[in-house]
Amino acid sequence: MSDNQLIKLRKEKLAKIRELGIDPYPIKSERTHKIDAVLCDKESWIESEEEVVLAGRLVAMRRQGKVGFGNLEDDSGRIQLFVSQNETGEENYELFKLCDSGDFISARGKFFFTNMGEYSLRVKEVVLLSKNMRPLPAVKEKIVDGKNVRYDEFSDIELRYRKRYLDLLLNPDHRKVFETRSKIVSAIRKFMDERGYIEVETPILQPLYGGANARPFITHHNTLDVDLYLRIAVELYLKRLIVGGFERVYEIGKNFRNEGMDRTHNPEFTMLEFYEAYSDLNGMMDMAEAMINHLAKDVLGKDSFHYNGYDVVLTQKFRRAGMHELVEEQLGMDVLNEDESVLRKFLEERKIEIPPGSGKGRLISIIYEEFVEPKLIQPTFVCDFPKEISPLAKAKPDNPLLADRFELVMAGGEFANAFSELNDPMDQRMRLEAQAALRAMGDSEANVVDEDFLEALEYGMPPMGGLGIGIDRLIMLLTENDSIKEVILFPQMKPEN
RNA sequence: GGUCCAGUAACUCAGCGGUAGAGUAUCUGCCUUUUAAGCAGGGAGUCGAUGGUUCGAGUCCAUCCUGGAUCACCA
């Protein structure tokens, strides 16, 4: 039976309901209790003989003659309805017979245990709240040995993402992921607020983009007749705010990067960035560690998370190590003291592409990314990034090749990036100009020179630490999902047709 | 973009050269304590698209579309 035929049948039912003088889409609805409120303390609900009105979606129907059972679900839980013509009267029972799985109804009645021992609402009256016109995909559940076995699950990955509302409706576990996501994001806000940070919102539409290495989306403003960029990071605006006198700011928002999509990349993704005046890299490590430990332990109540094939233990002290130390550990190569030509040869022999204009710093980072990062499973702050690839970070006083920067790596992937922020306007100008040179050599992801930002720096910016965390990836880890699409409600999909 | 896998009824899938199938859903009938309700019956599919091979194509071949995995790219 095609969709159209099924819908036609629903329309016929709708007409019958109207013939009975019933509005299938009434304005008013009544509900005295949410379902979870009546699921606890069942005996006393039964003893009290209190009449309640529950409302929700009818998710299953088992009708047999003049009596029938249905399952009613709201966002708090699910309960069985027992509907008998003796209780409802003939007329109301007629309406019940016209109800389908998928309808929203309310049901008035008292509680009891059925012969099979299931706690149920003995329904006195059914009220139709919203008629379903398109049958929901059939999913059946059965409890075997205490385990919930599901049949004919709505599991087609493409359909789940394209029709997310069905995924959420039919797969309660997936709804749970987004409830957890919301909890985590709230906890992050609270964590920041408690530490004296203020939350700010900075432009998504920017005349120039910056703060990361990425290709932007371009859009157009008609009135101004200018092209604008969707932001790739909030960094440069948050720094302007520190110039403006705020000492601790954070923003949680979408960034947009016009690049490939895969298991860990969506073109728009959520990022937390924060900046703290008079802090530095160590302060940022402490913050990141405390926040992630807190989310794992206090919010989710877990120590260990299975992600990307590994078990990552989050409630611990995170390792802190220099990139060159980690490379030495894995490869026995002293990259800092090795000659640039040796590093280049090492990569060339392994057929690893070297972008044009790469100096020693970038070569080190490529070696690290290729051979070391995938092996860092437990949380590790990888410090001492090459300055060459860190145009917004301060150089280390004791080694001009290195920047005071770290990335937090877990399960072989990057989760956060932080620096002691560069506040020397002259140095910053030179670094951005070096980036512009790379750009001229064809590196479309190199930074652009932002004169307004440089001018702001010239007015003076205090020393500070700054950190960015990819929220989607953090949620992936904390909810143990290996695909970013599982933690984004409406992930980017290719258009159909 | 490369490679591999998949697309058949609303859902989950079988069929892999010879008249399109199953369970669920849906519809009809019976049924006043079911819970993957049951019993009986019915309807339901351009077999992702387009070409080709063949007497004959969901089935073989080619191309394309869509999705997934993986690599590349990319924090």
CATH superfamily of the largest domain: Bira Bifunctional Protein, Domain 2
Structural class determined from secondary elements? alpha+beta
Relative helix content: 25-40%
The average pLDDT is: 90
Assess the beta-strand content as a share of residues. 25-35%
* Low-pLDDT segments: none
Report the biggest beta sheet as strand number plus sense, adding barrel if it closes: 8 strands, mixed
Total helix count?
16
Shape: elongated
| End-to-end distance | 24 Å
Annotated CATH topology of the largest domain: BirA Bifunctional Protein, domain 2
CATH architecture of the largest domain: 2-Layer Sandwich
Strand tally is 23
Total domain count = 2
CATH class of the largest domain: Alpha Beta
Describe the structure.
A hairpin with a 5-residue loop joins strand 4 and strand 5 (119-130). It is elongated, with a radius of gyration of 29 Å. The chain is 34% helix and 28% strand. Strands 8-12-13-23-22-21-17-16 form an 8-stranded mixed sheet, sandwiched between helices. Helix 14 (425-440) runs antiparallel to helix 15 (451-458). The mean pLDDT is 90. The protein has 2 domains: 3-136, Nucleic acid-binding proteins (OB fold (Dihydrolipoamide Acetyltransferase, E2P)), CATH 2.40.50; 173-318 and 378-486, 2-Layer Sandwich (BirA Bifunctional Protein, domain 2). With 497 residues, it is α+β, with helices and mostly antiparallel strands. The chain contains 16 helices and 23 strands. The two termini are 24 Å apart. The structure holds one RNA strand of 75 nucleotides.
